[in-house]
Each structure stands twice: as structure tokens, then as C-alpha cells.
UniProtKB/TrEMBL annotation:
The gene is der. Associates with the 50S ribosomal subunit. This is GTPase Der. GO terms for biological process: ribosome biogenesis. Residues 4-168, 177-352 form the EngA-type G domain. GTP 2 binds at residues 183-190, 230-234, 295-298. GTP 1 binds at residues 10-17, 57-61, 120-123. It comes from Crassaminicella thermophila. GO terms for molecular function: GTP binding; ribosome binding. Belongs to the TRAFAC class TrmE-Era-EngA-EngB-Septin-like GTPase superfamily. EngA (Der) GTPase family.
Length: 440
């Protein structure tokens, strides 16, 4: 199921980013080069009271400003508002109520979404007189917090999770392959979906899903059942500005979370962009099977080895997704579009594959003989036993003598040996280490 989405909105400089970073914690203090993660990340996964949700930071809203930058920030915030299940409207407890707060409150009331009015920068238990002015916004009881001092955050989180939507998305049979078509705006997602639905299916129905007005499209192709996840924003023109590319990531999150397989679309005329990396990185981190579909191939001037060079560039730019097959298609000419569903079915099977424990250990033992595990200060890593503990994505646990002796390069070697023996094409796999006696 999709994680609920919580958007933080408000005027500039009321403390939205401080609040965001406080809740996101170490996830935002990024020091490593991790796929799909950049320093300007504007979303983070947060857990509270066994609830997992996605938190979105936004640019400040200045409703009446004609300034280009502020207009862009306003458009970005509107995208986040449309995507959100719960809206945290943050105001400044030191400055007090201002006209822009009233304009934003008017905008938020029209959304019909649950809105929490949060008064930031209340640094003591004694509420300032200006606090009570915020009741004029008619958004319920204001919640006082101090993001900087982490005061009142627990009470606020309790109120946020109370407002999450009930689980009202229709579930489908387990055998149905749930597919998310993802990518930045104008890459041809709608054209690809319409081509597949128009030629290779019997549509079962359009089913309204969550409060975000998601539309899931189940259909049958041959003997196989599929569901295109959350096509509402793809199949009809969005009500919001689509050229705010930074926020196209946000629009993909829920669909990725609910899918088994992702079709990652890339524009052949542009190549792999930073936005593509973010979206593909999220699918990778979420453990989804993925096929990379390069659309508009008909618009690329061909020379000798053009396709091979393009594959090299994709593998270089999306190096964390080396397992994903690549298709070159054209929604206009319908070139190779028929191969998309075929590939989706194949990698879905790979994503769900479970390998026999005995055969798995034979492969690992052979790998150890060919390349001894690493050692440190005279102590060598010993691998006792390997087992697969789950699918979608495949996860393997390796029991060892000392987890501190494991090394990234040897883990990659083991992963490559597993892939050589069993395939797992199109799916990420995870390898975990446990010492004897530890629970899996």
C-alpha cells in the first residue's frame, strides 16, 4: 500500500525546513553517494507509532507575490498540497498572524484535506498572546511547537497520524502484476499506457482509489492480469503546473510504493537527467523490479552503434540499476512497445523467485573457493550458511563469524555470483549479514 503523504506548507522562513530536518533526522544528513539521494531532497520517510509516512518539504507560499521565484514556490507547494493526505500549515509564533497566513488558510480550506495549523517558534511552555490570534484562521486548535528545540513534536506527530486516511484502496488478486509507469513530465508515460491499453488488453474497469483521487486500471492480456497503478495524473492533464520537475518525484512516490514492477521512462532525445536519477533511485531503494524504457527512439538520429552507446551511457548514469533490462521504443510508431508487457511479466517472475537453499549454498561455497572472503588483522571472514528469507525483492541472509569483517566489494561479488547462477534479472536483491545466534 502507498504510504500516507504529509506536506508542510506556509510562508517563507517560518521554520518548515528545520521541522522537516528534525523529523527526517539522519536520513537528510547525507554524506555518502547513495543512488536516488541528493542533498536537495525534498521528501523523506518518517516513522511514528508504527506508522510510516512520506514527509514533503515545500517552498514558502506567498499568495499575492508576482515575483518569479515566489510564484514557482507557490506552484511547487500546490503540487505538494494536491499530492498530500495531511497538510501541516506552519505559521510563525514570533511574528504573529499576518495577511499572507490568512490567504494561505483560504487556499487550504478549499482543498478538503485534513489541515493541522502548527505555530512554530514557541520556545517556552507559556504561550505568547499572539498565539490566540491564529484561531481567526478557522482551522481548529493551533498546535504549538519549537522545531529548533524539538518541543511539542511528539504531540504534533500524534495528531498527524490520527488524520491518515483509512485503507480504502481496492485490493487485487495476488496474481495480478501491479505496474507503475514512472518518469519525469512529458516523457511519454500517457502515450505508452494508452498504446498498451488500446491494443493489448481487455480493460476490467477504472477504479477510484485513495483520497488522492488515484485511478487504478486493471486489465487482462492473454492469461495474465495486470493493474496500472495510480494513472489519474498520467491519463488526464493535471490541475497543477507540470513543469516543476523537482516535484515530479513526489508524484511518483505513492505509485512506486504500491507497485510490484516499475516502468522507468526516459526521453531518448534528452538522455538520463538528474530527475531521472532521483525517480529511478527511489524505485531501487523501494526494492521494485524495474524495466528502463527509452521512449521517442524514432526521434534520435541513428549512426553505427548508436544503441550500444546509449546503453553504455544509461548504465553509467544509473549504475545502481545495472540489473534492469533496457528497451528502446516509440509510442508514436509503436516500435517495440509490444515487448514492454512481455518484459514486465518476466521481471515480475524474477522479482518473486525463491531459490532452493541447498543449491544456493552450493553456489556460495563455489564462490568462496574461487575468491576467499576478506580478512582484517589476521582474522578472516567465515561464511557458514546462506538462506533466502523473502521475495519482492529477494533478500538473502548470510551467517558469518564476524559481521565487522564484511566488505562492500565482496558483497558485490557474492551478489554477482547469485545473479550468474539464478538470474534475478530486473530486480534488486538485498544481502544481509548475521552472526551465529542472531535472529534473522
Amino acid at each position: 500500500m502507498a504510504k500516507p503523504v504529509v506536506a508542510i506548507v506556509g510562508r517563507p522562513n517560518v521554520g518548515k525546513s528545520t521541522f522537516f530536518n528534525k523529523l527526517a533526522g539522519k536520513r537528510i544528513a547525507i554524506v555518502e553517494d547513495k543512488p536516488g539521494v541528493t542533498r536537495d531532497r525534498i521528501y523523506a520517510d518518517v516513522e511514528w507509532l508504527n506508522y510510516n509516512f512520506t514527509l514533503i518539504d515545500t517552498g514558502g507560499l506567498e499568495p499575492e507575490s508576482k515575483d518569479i521565484i515566489l510564484s514557482q514556490m507557490r506552484a511547487q507547494a500546490k503540487i505538494a498540497i494536491e499530492t498530500a493526505d495531511v497538510i501541516v500549515f506552519m505559521v510563525d509564533g514570533r511574528t504573529g498572524l499576518v495577511a499572507a497566513d490568512e490567504e494561505i488558510a483560504n487556499l487550504l480550506r478549499k482543498t478538503g484535506k485534513p489541515v493541522l495549523l502548527v505555530v512554530n517558534k514557541v520556545d517556552t511552555s507559556k504561550l505568547p498572546d499572539s498565539f490566540y490570534d491564529f484561531y481567526q484562521l478557522a482551522l481548529g486548535d493551533p498546535v504549538p511547537i519549537s522545531s529548533t528545540n524539538a518541543l511539542g513534536l511528539g504531540d504534533l506527530l500524534d495528531e498527524i497520524v490520527k488524520r491518515f486516511p483509512k485503507n480504502d484502496v481496492e485490493e487485487y488478486e495476488d496474481e495480478a502484476i501491479k505496474v507503475a509507469v514512472i518518469g519525469k513530465p512529458n516523457v511519454g508515460k500517457s502515450s505508452i499506457i494508452n498504446t498498451i491499453l488500446g491494443e493489448e488488453r481487455v480493460i476490467v474497469s477504472d477504479i477510484a482509489g485513495t483520497t488522492r483521487d488515484a485511478i487504478d486500471t486493471p486489465f487482462v492480456h492473454g492469461n495474465d492480469k495486470y493493474v496500472f497503478i495510480d494513472t489519474a495524473g498520467i491519463r488526464r492533464k493535471s490541475r497543477v503546473v507540470e513543469d516543476i520537475e523537482k516535484y515530479s518525484v513526489v508524484r511518483s512516490l505513492g505509485a512506486i510504493d504500491r507497485a510490484n514492477v516499475c516502468i522507468m521512462m526516459i526521453d531518448a532525445t534528452e538522455g538520463v537527467t538528474e530527475q531521472d536519477k532521483k525517480i529511478a533511485g527511489y524505485a531501487h531503494e523501494a526494492g521494485k523490479a524495474t524495466v528502463i524504457v527509452v521512449n521517442k527512439w524514432d526521434a534520435v538520429k541513428k549512426e553505427t552503434n548508436t544503441m550500444n552507446e546509449y546503453v553504455k551511457e544509461i548504465r553509467n548514469q544509473l549504475s545502481f540499476m545495472s540489473y534492469a533490462p533496457i528497451l528502446f521504443v516509440s509510442a508514436v510508431t509503436k516500435q517495440r512497445v509490444h515487448k514492454i508487457l512481455e518484459t514486465v511479466k518476466f521481471i515480475s517472475n524474477q522479482h518473486s523467485m525463491r531459490v532452493p537453499t541447498g543449491r544456493l549454498n552450493d553456489v556460495i561455497n563455489e564462490a568462496i573457493l574461487l575468491n576467499q572472503p576478506p580478512s582484517d588483522k589476521g582474522k578472516r571472514l567465515k561464511i557458514y550458511y546462506v538462506t533466502q528469507i523473502s521475495v519482492r525483492p529477494p533478500v538473502f541472509v548470510i551467517f558469518v563469524n564476524d559481521r565487522e569483517l564484511t566488505h562492500f566489494s565482496y558483497t558485490r561479488y557474492i551478489e554477482n555470483k547469485i545473479r550468474e547462477a539464478f538470474g534475478f534479472e530486473g530486480t534488486p536483491i538485498s544481502i544481509l549479514y548475521r552472526e551465529k545466534g542472531e535472529e534473522i
